[in-house]
Write a structure and sequence with these properties.
Low-confidence stretches: 433-438, 639-652
Shape: globular
Structural class: alpha+beta
Helix content: 25-40%
Number of helices: 24
Largest sheet: 6 strands, antiparallel
Radius of gyration: 25 Å
Distance between the termini: 37 Å
Number of strands: 17
Length: 652
């Protein structure tokens, strides 16, 4: 399955089939193998079907249990099917033909609202309990399947994407200007993060929501990221073996027994390369893993660093890979922008055109299940930016000196540069006055109207500590990783873009088992022998190409020629900036002069292999302005309204 949706009337009315059909039509890209929806009195539920495994062919949803008056729709890929069946007292003789929805329904009968705690895999489901006259919706632990909802005047609606909700005429499309401002300022996402639209919320991963016939709504957290007890307190050898075993199983669960080939975005980094290597033994005989990599052209000989070398090394040593390379000729950040905004009703990432190209390459290679290495940096493979400072603080001195020498040897940096860049900033942060650390970053560095930014801070609509640029103690590595995992699990998700290319995304590093192992690994093993991929290199020594053991641990950007691309489209960007600047509403939020200044900082040859901060900031702000402009044009009556706070907009 690849999406569930539905409506519940809270005013005594009945859900119409027309409403469900509208939602189904808006979500048709998720229903590659059909779908169904059914209205029954005050509730209507629907499901979109995209088959990944043979067992998915046995799905028949909505699933009814007449005896207990239960109805379920579920978007799932469960990993513990046999174990779950045994725990429920079910026979496993026919487990290969028992769909996930049947297991989830049995789990609810056994454990009620706590059933999500007992599931392992990717899932989002909605269950109507007719006897209790209550709806339960739930999202998997790390939020790999998407679920948005809206509480309206006399109704509750849910869907995997905003477009599914906007198919209902009673769901407004009013932008939350405070949320737009927070995004411009670089607010870190997390639980309670506001989306761009007033009244649209994403159910966080690890949470369930219940709503009764009278509208009594309760959200309950059923899982908090934490170390699994069985992984706590072991030696290095244990964690090396556990790394290999747990990540290997998380990868195998995703590629084993698929109807079509699996796919992988292969960035050439340690995380995606680990998945590429570990997937091999789990593939069916003769089956290939389709990979797509964003690289420079084969004949490129310039100074831009990119992933081709590392992706080709993986292909050399992993004969089960079917590589595809994306070099972005003829496309740029403006390609398909208007269509994407209209189809998704969400802001488009400045990298969206590359994501489209990579996903298209996987689909063209025959993939339907897609993976990437996202999540490795904050689970099993922390970057360890503050490791040297932590070794200095925690000792012993011999360990610090050993790591300092290894760091200098691997990076090629001088002692002076290492102390200045990698050590002192992390130690000095603790000595700075709290008032200085809490001071909001200068918004002149962002493309937000200074007056609007000042108002956001003055009203408390944005907290300086929540911004990405806020100083943080990087020596508290475990704490920062736990915080990051918690924030990521609350992410609204973005599987809709993948499904528009016929792909279902699932991330092995977001597997609950991987997370619970990662949080048990001692901080002393995050970085060792100067290497911030130490455990990965030890655990996967025979999986990675040998060259990975000696490489510096830097990622290659998805658009290594980002600055060249921005320089090419700069005239079009400036013309469009001039057009949007004439809008009083947009100019109250965006600082278009700042966008122009940021675009002028670098020329086409002043590149940093895709890490050009000024150009990145300018283009991201432009893309957000285009999104706001698109929504305003669809809602022209709002053009002259004053800027409203989140609370004011919510209260009408």
């Amino acid at each position: 399955m690849s999406g569930v949706f539905g409506v519940m009337r809270l005013d005594g009315g009945e859900v119409s089939a027309v409403s469900l059909n509208r939602m189904a039509a808006a979500l048709a890209h998720r229903a590659l193998d059909g779908g169904a929806a059914e209205a029954f009195g005050e509730v209507g539920l629907g499901a979109c079907l995209t088959q990944l495994r043979p067992v998915d062919r046995h799905e028949a949803q909505p699933l009814h249990d007449a005896d207990d008056d239960l109805t379920l729709v579920a978007d799932t890929r469960l990993d513990d099917r046999a174990d779950l069946a045994l725990a429920l007292g079910l026979s496993i003789d026919n487990i290969d033909s028992t769909p996930d929805s049947t297991l989830i329904l049995a789990a609810y009968r056994a454990w009620g609202d706590r059933c999500p705690e007992r599931l392992l895999g990717d899932f989002a489901f909605a269950l109507w309990d007719g006897r209790a006259r209550r709806l339960l919706i739930a999202r998997d632990h790390m939020g790999q399947r998407d679920l948005h909802y809206h509480v309206g005047d006399g109704f509750f609606a849910f869907a995997p994407e905003p477009v599914g909700l906007f198919a209902l005429p009673d769901v407004p499309r009013d932008l939350d200007d405070d949320a737009i401002g927070a995004r411009l300022l670089g607010e870190r996402p997390g639980i309670g993060r506001r989306g761009p639209f007033v009244g649209l919320n994403a159910l966080p991963g690890g949470h369930g929501l219940t709503i009764g016939a009278r509208g009594d709504l309760e959200i309950r957290r059923y899982w908090t990221p934490a170390a699994a007890a069985e992984h706590i307190g072991h030696d290095e050898a244990y964690y090396v073996a556990a790394y290999r075993r747990v990540l290997g199983e998380a990868t195998a669960c995703r590629v084993r027994g698929l109807i079509q080939r699996p796919g992988l975005l292969l960035s050439g980094g340690y995380d995606s390369a680990a998945i590429a290597g570990l997937a091999g033994p789990a593939l069916a005989p003769g089956q290939k893993l389709v990979t797509a990599s964003s690289v420079m052209p084969a004949d490129y000989r310039g100074t831009i660093r990119h992933a081709r070398h590392w992706a080709e090394l993986c292909t050399r040593d992993m004969p089960w890979l079917d590589p595809h390379y994306v070099t972005r000729e003829g496309v740029d950040a403006l390609t398909g922008l208007e269509t994407a905004l209209a189809e998704t009703q969400t802001p488009r990432n400045a990298y969206g055109f590359v994501h489209d190209a990579l996903q298209s390459a996987l689909a063209a290679g025959g993939a339907r299940l897609a993976m990437d290495g996202h999540g490795g940096d904050y689970t099993l493979n922390p970057r360890g930016d503050g490791a040297l400072a932590r070794f200095w603080k925690t000792g012993p001195l011999s360990r610090f000196l050993s790591e300092l020498r290894a760091h200098i040897r691997l990076t090629g940096r001088s002692l002076y540069h290492t102390v200045k860049v990698d050590l002192l900033p992390h130690l000095a942060l603790r000595l700075l006055p709290g008032e200085w650390r809490a001071k909001p970053p200068a918004w002149a560095e962002k493309a937000i109207s200074p007056a609007f930014a000042a108002d956001l801070f003055a009203r408390g609509a944005v907290q300086s500590a929540s911004l990405r640029a806020a100083p943080r103690d990087r020596t508290a590595m475990h704490e920062r990783i736990t915080e990051t995992i918690d924030r990521i699990s609350a992410n609204p998700g973005g599987s809709g873009g993948w499904l528009r290319h016929g792909l279902v995304i699932s991330r092995p590093f977001h597997d609950k088992r991987v997370v619970e192992l990662a949080l048990a690994i001692p901080e002393d093993l995050y970085v060792a022998e100067g290497r911030n991929r130490y455990l990965a290199c030890r655990a996967l020594a025979d999986v990675y190409p040998p060259e990975f053991q000696a490489r510096w641990r830097r990622n290659d950007d998805e658009i290594p020629d980002f600055q060249l691309m921005v320089s090419r489209i700069k005239p079009r960007l400036l013309a469009d900036v001039a057009r949007m600047e004439r809008s009083e509403r947009l100019s109250r939020i965006f600082d278009f002069a700042a966008i122009r200044r940021l675009l002028d900082v670098r020329g086409p040859d002043d590149h940093n292999s895709g890490w050009e901060e000024e150009s990145q900031t300018a283009l991201s702000a432009y893309m957000l302005a285009r999104f706001v402009d698109s929504v305003r044009r669809e809602n022209p009556h709002q053009d002259n309204e004053p800027i409203r706070s989140h609370e004011e907009a919510a209260n009408g």
